[in-house]
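Per reviewer request, we include the raw input and output of the structure prediction for the construct analysed in the revised manuscript.
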Amino acid sequence: MTHKPIEDNNEYISIEVKASALSRMLGGHNLHLTDIHCSCSENKRKLQYLLLKAVNNK
C-alpha cells in the first residue's frame, strides 16, 4: 500500500484524548500516542508523523 506524503498545512485532524491524558499533557508531562485516538487510520498516521517531526526538531 502506498501512502501520499504528508504536508504541513492547515488541515484539521480529528482526535480524541482521554481527559486524564490531556491533564497530564497540560501539566507538562509526557503524552503517549496510545492516549490519543483518531477517527480513522489516515488521521492516526498524520498525527504520528507530526509528533515525530516535532520531537526531531528539538
